């Protein structure tokens, strides 16, 4: 029997889950759904049930352990607090790890019992990823039922990304977030069904995959990931200086004080945006959402890859937003504008909570970009075009990039490697009122350190026109070009439009580009007289 009941205690009302492994639901699953694949191997699940676990501090103060083992409970809380301190967990970290521990901890368990394996029965030989892939094929009701079958299934079936996918697939952007994705799903389809706001703690469950996922959702950015700031900063430079010192040599720069005339810098707060945008929907990952609903989600969410609002049509949808900012004078040349309505997407409003962001990528169509923060702050890491960042694996044609699941995972596993990397990256924190210039071809990763709002635009100027045309002409343009439905013809359309608007420009710039390349390949005086390998003078008679 699975039930939810209220028990009066002298202290407080205590909701209790009673899980009886002979439950009707579990039996139904065993007989009907599992076709005998799952063995009920942990019939007497000793569930340590933790209550009121919104945050670990509150947990220490309020949690009651059913099965009343107070000594054990205190130990658990102390451990949780220590882990939190050591790992810098977010103050709002959810303890809904369900007790999952990294696999290595199994070696400290004298019984070597992993309830992952006993709970999964014959499926235990599958990898965690595969189990989750299979569970991803189930609909919500079946996932809920399966979660009552064993401790192992309880944890797997409560894996938040499974419920996130279900919500996004079925509700699209029309969901009201309720603290976690599982509750959101239940709230949307079974509003009367009681859902606990906390997870059951399962003892002796070890899985690196699930632990890592929980950790990445709850880990704070460490101070040592933020302290390096080696970008060149400039305030009040002229356009010529910008072109000569940064755009021409294709180097990043952080520009201060150039958003002072932006109405959006002052005006764009949540109330203003919600009022101006009303019921209009914006692109949020794979779905479209009203701003008000998105803010409700982003206020509560703690997940590895928070949904990120990234909308290329914001100024068409809400023209006032387009009027609330001006392109900084350094970026006024915008050659794609010759294509009129046929130009690829080029400007985005970006809104996201702390922890959201963009994992390593190179900007589309070999364009350069600027990114202006109007609220919050963003940590940037940039690598030059010839240095692929550690942990990032582009496909040979560059059309796809494999990288860690989340940005925080990249920091955990690869940031340290950058200290000895071929070329150390450019790093900075870009704050409200500041603009970063992202030169074409540079790899970059961005993580929001607080709730943030930004505008970004990608552009083609004379400095990168030749390079963009070359990119658009590549044989696999149909997979590489983005932001337009007409990928294959974009090159010819753009070239013709430039010829029509700026006759002779392409030839002139191509010549200049060839001269520049020849200059770069030409050895310097010292290179011509030294043997660069041996580092000694080369001389001849
Ligand atoms: O998340 C961000 O603000 C960065 C956006 C970005 O990298 C891009 O638009 O290419």
UniProtKB/TrEMBL annotation:
InterPro entries: Cupin_8 (IPR041667), F-box-like_dom_sf (IPR036047), F-box_dom (IPR001810), JmjC_dom (IPR003347), JMJD6_ArgDemeth/LysHydrox (IPR050910). PROSITE patterns: JMJC (PS51184). SMART domains: JmjC. Transmembrane segments: none annotated. Residues 316-476 form the JmjC domain. Pfam families: Cupin_8, F-box-like. PANTHER family: ARGININE DEMETHYLASE AND LYSYL-HYDROXYLASE JMJD (PTHR12480), JMJC DOMAIN-CONTAINING PROTEIN 8 (PTHR12480:SF21). Belongs to the JARID1 histone demethylase family. This is JmjC domain-containing protein. It comes from Solanum tuberosum. The lineage of its organism: Eukaryota, Viridiplantae, Streptophyta, Embryophyta, Tracheophyta.
């Amino acid at each position: 029997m699975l039930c939810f009941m209220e028990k009066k205690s002298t202290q407080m009302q205590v909701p209790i889950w009673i899980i009886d492994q002979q439950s009707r639901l579990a039996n139904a699953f065993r007989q009907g759904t599992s076709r005998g694949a799952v063995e009920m191997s942990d019939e007497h699940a000793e569930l340590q049930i933790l209550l009121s676990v919104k945050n670990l501090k509150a947990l220490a103060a309020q949690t009651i352990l059913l099965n009343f083992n107070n000594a054990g409970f205190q130990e658990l809380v102390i451990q949780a607090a220590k882990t939190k301190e050591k790992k810098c967990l977010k103050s709002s970290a959810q303890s809904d790890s369900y007790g999952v521990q990294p696999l290595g901890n199994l070696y400290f368990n004298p019984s070597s019992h992993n309830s992952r394996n006993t709970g999964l029965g014959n499926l235990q030989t599958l990898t965690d990823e595969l189990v989750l892939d299979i569970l991803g094929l189930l609909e919500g009701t079946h996932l809920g039922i399966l979660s009552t079958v064993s401790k192992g299934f309880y944890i797997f079936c409560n894996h938040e990304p499974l419920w996130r996918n279900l919500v996004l697939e079925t509700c699209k952007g029309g969901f009201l977030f309720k603290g976690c994705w599982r509750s959101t799903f239940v709230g949307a389809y079974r509003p009367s069904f009681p859902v606990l706001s906390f997870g059951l703690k399962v003892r002796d469950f070890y899985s690196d995959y699930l632990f890592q996922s929980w950790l990445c959702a709850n880990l704070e950015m460490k101070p040592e990931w933020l302290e390096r700031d080696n970008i060149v900063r400039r305030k009040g430079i002229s356009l010529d200086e910008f072109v000569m010192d940064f755009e021409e040599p294709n180097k990043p720069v952080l520009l201060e004080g150039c958003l002072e005339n932006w109405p959006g810098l002052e005006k764009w707060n949540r109330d203003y945006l919600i009022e101006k945008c009303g019921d209009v929907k914006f692109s949020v990952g794979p779905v479209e959402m009203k701003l008000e609903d998105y803010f409700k989600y982003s206020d509560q969410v703690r997940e590895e890859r928070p949904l990120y609002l990234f909308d290329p049509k914001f100024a068409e949808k809400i023209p006032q937003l387009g009027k609330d900012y001006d392109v900084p004078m350094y970026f006024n040349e915008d050659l794609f504008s010759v294509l009129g309505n046929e130009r690829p997407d080029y400007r985005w409003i970006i809104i996201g909570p702390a922890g959201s962001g963009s994992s390593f990528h190179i900007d589309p169509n070999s364009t350069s970009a600027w990114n202006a923060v109007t609220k919050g702050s963003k940590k940037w890491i940039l690598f030059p075009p010839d240095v692929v960042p550690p942990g990032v694996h582009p496909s040979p044609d560059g059309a796809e990039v494999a990288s860690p699941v989340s940005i925080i995972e990249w920091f955990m596993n690869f940031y340290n490697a950058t200290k000895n990397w071929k070329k150390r990256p450019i790093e900075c924190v870009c704050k409200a009122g500041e603009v970063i210039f992202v030169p074409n071809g540079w790899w970059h990763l961005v993580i929001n350190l607080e709730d943030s709002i930004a505008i970004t635009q990608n552009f083609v100027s004379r400095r990168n026109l030749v390079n963009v045309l070359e990119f658009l002409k590549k044989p696999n343009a149909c997979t590489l070009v983005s932001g337009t439905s007409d990928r294959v013809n974009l090159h010819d359309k753009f070239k013709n439009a430039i010829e029509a608007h700026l006759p002779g420009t392409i030839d002139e710039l191509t010549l200049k580009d060839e001269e520049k390349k020849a200059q770069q390949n030409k050895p310097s005086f010292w290179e011509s007289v030294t043997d660069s390998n041996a580092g000694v003078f080369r001389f001849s008679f």
